[in-house]
Every structure is written in structure tokens, then in C-alpha cells.
Amino acid sequence: MPQSEFLPRQYALADSKLKTTNVTLQSTDSDFQFTFEALQPGLFRTTFFSPTHPLPPHPSTGPRATAFLTGKFFGNEPTLTSTELQKNIVVGNVTASVTWTDCPMVSIQIAGQEKPIHKDLQFRSYVADSTGVAHYTHYKRDTLHVGLGEKCAPMDLSNRHFTLSATDSFGYDIYRTDPLYKHIPLLINATPEGVVGIFSSSHSRGTYDIGSEIDGLWGHFKVYRQDYGGLEEYLLIGDTIQDVVRMYANLVGHPLLVPRWAFGYIAGGYKYAAMDEPRAADVLYEFAEKLKKHDIPCNALQLSSGYSIAATEPKVRNVFTWNRHRFPDPEEFLAKYHHEGIRIIANIKPYVLAAHPDYQKLVDGKALFTNPRTKQSAVARLWSAGGGESVEGGHIDFTSDLGFKWWFEGVKYLRTAGVEGIWNDNNEYTITDDLWQCSLQHDKDTPIEGVGDHIGIWGRALHTELMGQSSHDALLDLEPNVRPFVLTRSATAGTMRYAASSWGGDNVTTWDSMKGSNSLSLNAGMSLIHCYGHDIGGFEDPQPVPELLLRWIQLGCHSPRFAINCFKTDENDNTIGGVIEPWMYPEITPLIRAAIKRRYEMIPYLYTLMLQSHLKAVPPQRWIVSGYESDPEVWCEALKAGEKQYWLGGSLLVGGVYEPGI
């Protein structure tokens, strides 16, 4: 992409009154303004913006986060020292210094340390770049960088470059593919001296270069580049990673308390709901009988989207509808599964194809995006039925009153029929045009003066968050006293205020995929995605051999979320694929049964961990060194990789088997 950096300079104090908690600077050679504010001990907020680069119009922190946090110093009242071109704010054991001899530069120092733990890059700290901004900071070599939601293994993100976006990364390489499914611009730098988190509240796409780019003049640096708008960033300072995660949770919201049933075995497989002969409902009745025959407990089944593919031409996917050939009586099917103790989690996708019975209604009501070039409803090619098949349709615009409400009512319809969990899938919003327009009707409290209506600045990821809110609120509207369960594939920082669970998407069937998944889980946990797991056995590729399946189930039983789900298409069958079932290899079925029953024995422990997650933002799945970051003996590459072992809670050390023949 073109680069057009502009460095605003010649800053002066915009407010002559000295305040103990903030500084506001105005560039005199441009219209950019810079602010720095102490919110709480260890928590600071920075903004950098102008009329042409407005602040994020819908920050992922939520509308009340900053107001709620500001000024709560818990007895550690800030003190101030200042000179003509520098201001020092001391809160507890942290000193934040802001200088503006040329351009604003922030440094953070912890009491007793010789050097700053965080420092902006001099002469290049905060720059405008075309429609967006960039923030340059010093890169500390030989330390640990984690977070960013969900990034390819290993766990340590140091010396690497990442795209901040979300995409449908079907069949990804767990060590190479980027981006994956989550868009969470939280980067945590852990050192023996302390831990620093940097979090951007924007939903705009961007990139993060974490020391992979080196320049002889500028040295070793990190740079966060944001495609659109101005910058709102939070600095989070603590002694441990958990200190930072807890402060981050106070900004974006603590994880939801997951219903107890969600910790059992969750079954799935695209094939089940895609069958015509025998009918899908009958195939699933048989599956429930086989569970009893093999004495394997099961709490839920992920019902893939085949249930919503039309029974007559055009045989394409129509969200919130039922294929009445595959499921002649959906209510009866759902009631029978509920009677067996198996809850149905129904797959829904945030788009409508042109053949959908409500398509024209949604077009006429401006519930889809608008293409500014045609002034008509924006059209995209979207997944229609079998693997790789597509037809034209449109994405739901969740800033539209009709779009949000239509989705809300669709979820209520499924719940009323007997669906007990909602599976928000394919919600990465992989739209190919930044200029598509949002209606901006739904979120009327959001100030939009001076902000355009295009999806580039509002962010594709905003719709992932609002989709989660609509699904969550619909379930809660029907049953205010029941914890809503929304499973989401994509996520932003704000999505997990509404979604109870997530997973690592469409992985593949290899030993490396199983091993690397631990790294994804640890970074997800440090990014506040706590009820998280992976499709055991692999979503795509050939079936796992018996040994790999057994080892994966044994490992997966010791994770916050335990699910077996797959597609398993091949060149001869891209329609219904295959399934992974616990009894598919009779020679290992007793061992698999024992592992799954062990999982059920652990549910009280897992539930306790999720209660800690909900109340204190402590990840259930934890880095092996969690809490001991100040010990220099732990900083070895094997531990920083996060691949082979982890803590499940504070009492269970988990180490898997990642090679055959062991």
C-alpha cells in the first residue's frame, strides 16, 4: 500500500492550566491534537487526531469505559512536575513523562528501574499516514510479546509482522497463516522488569510490526499502523501479564459466565445436517443412539448450516429458514435432542443470498450495505452451499435499524423453536471495498460529526461485534434469567461482552496443528477470549489416524472448550464431507471414552476457573510462566513458544504428546 507519512510538529500546550492527570497539546503547523491522561494506577490514555483523522467513532471499549475508569486512583493520587516542554505524572510506582520538544514523546518508568519500560520513538512517534495514523515505539529485544487475539504459532510474537484484520482462513497453516479470525489490537510486552500493554480501540484494519523491520537510522522499533482515522490508545502497566489483562478487562468488559453445560463434550460435523437420504434428522437421531450405545456423554451438538439450505432450487443457504425435507419437524427434532440432554447450537451467517425470501425486503429497508458507486445495495459473492460454491448476495449492516432488528427476531425464532445456543459463523466481514457505506441508524448515541459513513473508518469488525450483541440480546430478551450462549468464530475486543465462547476456526489434521493450537489458545486467553478451544481432529484434510485422534482428544479434554467438529471435504466430495466420531476406531474407543469421562469429572474444576475468568479476568488456560515474569530463569525460547505445555488453572499442568510413536 502507498505510504504517505506526515509528522505534525511544533506542539504547544492547548490548556495553560496545569492539571495533575493530563496534558493536551496542539500542533501549530497542522490541525492535529495530542492528549495524554492518567486514568488509574497503571492505566493511561493517549489520543492523536484531527478533523480529517477523527477518533474511532465506535470504540471497542464501549461508550462508558473511559468515564467509568477516569479518576479512580484508590489513594494513589497523581502528583505533577513540569517544565516548559515536559510534564511528569507520577501515579503510585509509575512515572509517565510527556515531552514535546519536536513531537510528543511518551515514556513510562517503574520505580526502582534504571530505564523506561516503554518509550516512543523520537522524531517519529505519532504520524499521519494518508487516511490513517501510525505509532512508533522502541522495540525491546529479547523480551516477550503476546496478545493480538489469535495469531499463528509460536506464542511469542516478537520479530514478526501481522495484519490486523479478520478473514475466513479455511484450512490455515497454524505456523504461517496471517490473518486468522480475530481482530484485537492488544499487544502485551512482558519483561523481567514489568509488563506493558498497548491497546487501540479502533475497529479499522491495520498492521503491527513487532521488531521485524529494522532501520539503521531509527534502530529497533515497533509500529502500529491504522488504515483509517485518528488514534485512541491505552497504556496498561503492571508487574505481571495478569495485571495487564485485568486492566484490559476493566476497559472492554469481563468475559461472560458460561453456562455449565458448555463444558461437556460438544459434537458436530457439517455432514450431519447436509444429508438428504437418509434425512439429516434421522442421521442425527442415530448419532444420539450411538452415543448411548458407546456410553459416551454429550452435552451439545453444533448444528451446521446444512439445515438452512433450501430443499428446492436454488438449493442455497438461507439463514433463519429450515430445509423441511432434511428436518420435516424442526420443533420435534429439537425437543427430542433436548430430552436426550443434548442442546442444539445452530449455525447462522450474517448475510443473505439473492434467493433468500427476505432479500428484497432487506434491500428496500437499507439493511444491507450501500455501494457508493452504484447507489444501490452492495453485492458480493458469498458461500452458498458446498465447499467453494458461491452466488451473489449481501452482508447484513448491523448499524441499520432493520438489519439489527431482523437478526434479533431471527435468533428469537430459533430459540423459540428449541435451539439453545447460537453459533455466529463466517462473521469476519471480508468485504473487498473500504468505501461501502453503513446506514448508521442503530447506534444513535454514537457521535458521528465529521466522520464518514464508509466501512473503512467504522470497521468491518464493528459488525462482528454488533452481530454478537444482536444474538446475545435476542436470547436475553426471551429468557432474562438464563445465561445466553453465543459461540463466535470472529471477534473484536468488544465481541466477548456478548459471546460466551470461541474457537480457532477451520484448522487442519496434522500433529503440528495440534501442537501449535496451544500457542493460539494462550494468546487468545491473554486477549480475554477465555472459553476457547479447537476443532479436535482437524476441521479439514483427511481423517486423523487413530493415534493422532486419541492424542488430540486427550489434550482437548484439558482445555476450556472441548468440541469435535469437522467438514472433511475432498476433490471427490465438496458437498457434505465426512465426520469424526469418538467410536470411529474401535481399537481406541475405550481410551477415548475414558478421556471424555475424565473431562466430565473435571467440570466442577473448569466451572470454577470460568467463574474466576468472569470475576477477575484470569484465563483458565495459562502460560507456563504466568505469575513468575520477574524471574530471569524463565526466559528461554522453549517456554516463550508456548507450544507443548500450559497450566489449566493453577493446579493442573498439562503436557501433550505431539509426535507419533510415543
Structure write-up:
By secondary structure, the chain is α+β, with helices and mostly antiparallel strands. Among the domains are: 5-148 and 184-252, Sandwich (Immunoglobulin-like), CATH 2.60.40.1760; 302-495, TIM Barrel (Alpha-Beta Barrel). Helices cover 23% and strands 25% of the residues. The chain is built from 14 helices and 37 strands. It has an eight-stranded antiparallel beta sheet, covered by helices on one side. An eight-stranded parallel beta sheet has the order 33-32-30-29-23-22-21-34. A six-stranded antiparallel beta sheet has the order 1-11-12-19-18-14, with no helix packed on it. Helix 7 crosses helix 9 (460-478). The longest helix is centred in the last third of the chain and has 19 residues, at 460-478. The radius of gyration is 25 Å and the shape is globular. The protein starts with a strand and ends in a 7-residue tail after the last strand. The mean pLDDT is 95. One of its GO terms (molecular function) is carbohydrate binding. Residues 34-209 form the Glycoside hydrolase family 31 N-terminal domain. Pfam families: Gal_mutarotas_2, Glyco_hydro_31_2nd. Residues 255-609 form the Glycoside hydrolase family 31 TIM barrel domain.
Question: What key phrases describe this protein's structure?
Answer:
single chain, 662 residues, Immunoglobulin-like, TIM Barrel, eight-stranded parallel beta sheet, 14 helices, 23% helix, alpha-1,4-glucosidase activity, glycosidase
Q: Find the structural class using helix and strand composition.
A: alpha+beta
Sheet-strand content, in percent, reads 25-35%
CATH superfamily of the domain at 5-148 and 184-252: glycosyl hydrolase (family 31)
**Any idea what the radius of gyration is?**
25 Å
Number of helices: 14
Mean pLDDT: 95
The level 1 CATH classification of the domain at 5-148 and 184-252 is: Mainly Beta
Distance between the termini: 48 Å
